[in-house]
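Postdoc handover notes: sequence design on the structure in folder B. Input tokens:
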């Protein structure tokens, strides 16, 4: 329960897509204190190029467009 399920979901998102999950789901799938979970969720979101937005009882992950370099 270290965020593997969230990682699997976020890796499938395409740029521009978003995913909204209830806080209860995060509490069930990631062990630890609320602060530790929040840090891990933010870290996972950054790993997969997502912005994480907190709402009332929900968290929304939005896959960001990555500009082409070249």
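Designed sequence:
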């Amino acid at each position: 329960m270290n965020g593997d399920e969230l990682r699997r979901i976020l890796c499938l998102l395409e740029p521009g897509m978003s995913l909204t999950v209830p806080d209860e789901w995060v509490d069930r799938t990631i062990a630890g204190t609320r602060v530790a979970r929040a840090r891990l969720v933010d870290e996972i979101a950054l790993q997969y190029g997502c912005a994480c937005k907190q709402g009332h009882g929900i968290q929304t992950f939005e896959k960001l467009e990555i500009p082409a370099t070249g």
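Context for whoever picks this up: The helical segments are 4-12, 23-29, 34-47. Don't rerun without checking with the PI first.
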